[in-house]
Design brief:
Number of helices: 6
Largest sheet: 5 strands, mixed
Bound molecules: copper (II) ion
Radius of gyration: 28 Å
CATH topology of the largest domain: Immunoglobulin-like
Number of strands: 13
Shape: elongated
CATH class of the largest domain: Mainly Beta
Structural class: alpha+beta
């Protein structure tokens, strides 16, 4: 099972601490339960019609103080040393910015690349610096045994070094709204070579968007929608989600609630610009007013609108 895989440098030590603590707790549960049952029989009223007070047993008291103390300190020691490693990323770790929003993750790399899934090179440490654009989210990669709260207004971090190739689930652990359970993504761990290929192929890197305008870039516009979180609420295949599908949208007429009242308008370029840049100022009737403002650059906006146009006749 992939989520049980020990896929990062922490997985082994986290499992050891967790399973060790669990084993100690289980042993004590059994021990205490055994004594409850044993004493209930041994000191039942039938066997001991005359109750007696039992006082002091110094050796016994020393044992039940010292043994748990040593066990607790051991749990603390192993928990603390692993925690310290987790809070001290190696200085050569690649810094990736993680942005959480309802309901999508996006990742930004040192060279400006962005993606909706996290790409990593085998064995190479990555430091994730987190921020949230709206509510509290929780970034969790079970196979890596890393988890961090992503809190609006507060930057946090977590790091890891992948030690297995493959795809690993990313989940949001905080109930962050209706599509919380769909706030999923993946870590794709590639070989150093494949990672470099992906990293330096600036097919869809945002800084390459402007010069490449005019060339057919359909798949990369789709990737841009993914990286900007749009696909959390909009489909491109006709399926209604939190927001209307973008398929066949361009040019259709529909009722929209503007600041000064409801009107029927065509979804043309001007309207798309307004709705994407200032979602509050134009709300499509029949949908909740939950679309967040976007941080698309002018070039990205043009690309998205061209893409929505291209979806018209599909
Ligand atoms: Cu979330």
């Amino acid at each position: 099972m992939p989520f049980l895989a020990q896929a990062s440098s922490f997985s082994g030590s986290v499992d050891r601490v967790f399973l060790g603590t669990l084993a100690v707790c289980a042993a004590f549960l059994l021990l205490v339960t055994f004594f409850i049952v044993y004493f209930s029989i041994r000191y039942s009223r039938k066997r001991n019609p005359e109750p007696v007070d039992i006082h002091e047993n110094t050796p016994l008291e020393i044992v039940w103080t010292v043994v748990p103390l040593v066990l607790f300190l051991a749990m603390f020691y192993y928990g603390w040393t692993d925690f310290r490693t987790m809070r001290n990323p190696p200085p050569d770790a690649m810094v990736v910015e993680v942005t959480a929003r309802q309901w999508a993750w996006s990742f930004k790399y040192p060279n400006g690349r962005q993606s909706g899934e996290l790409y990593a090179a085998l064995g190479r440490p990555i430091k994730l610096v987190t921020r949230s654009l709206d509510v509290i989210h929780g970034f969790f990669v079970p196979a890596f045994r890393i988890k961090v709260d992503v809190v609006p207004g507060k930057s946090n971090f977590v790091w890891f070094a992948p030690r297995l190739l493959g795809d690993f689930d990313i989940q949001c652990t905080v109930i962050c709204g209706v599509d919380h359970s769909a706030m999923l993504s993946k870590v794709r761990v590639l070989s150093e070579e494949d990672f470099k290929k992906w990293y330096f192929s600036d097919e869809d890197a945002p800084h390459a968007a402007a010069p490449a305008a005019g060339s057919p870039r359909k798949t990369s516009a789709l990737e841009l929608l993914g990286a900007k979180g749009c696909l959390a609420c909009h489909s491109v295949d006709g399926t209604p989600m939190v927001g209307p599908t973008l398929k066949g949208l361009y040019g259709t007429r529909h009722a929209v609630l503007f600041k000064d009242g409801e009107r029927e308008v065509a979804a043309d370029e001007k309207f798309l610009r307004q709705v994407i840049q200032e979602p509050d100022s134009a709300v499509v009737v029949g949908y909740p007013p939950v679309m967040p403002p976007s941080d698309l650059t002018e070039a990205e906006l043009a690309e998205v609108i061209a893409y929505i146009k291209s979806l018209r006749d599909k």
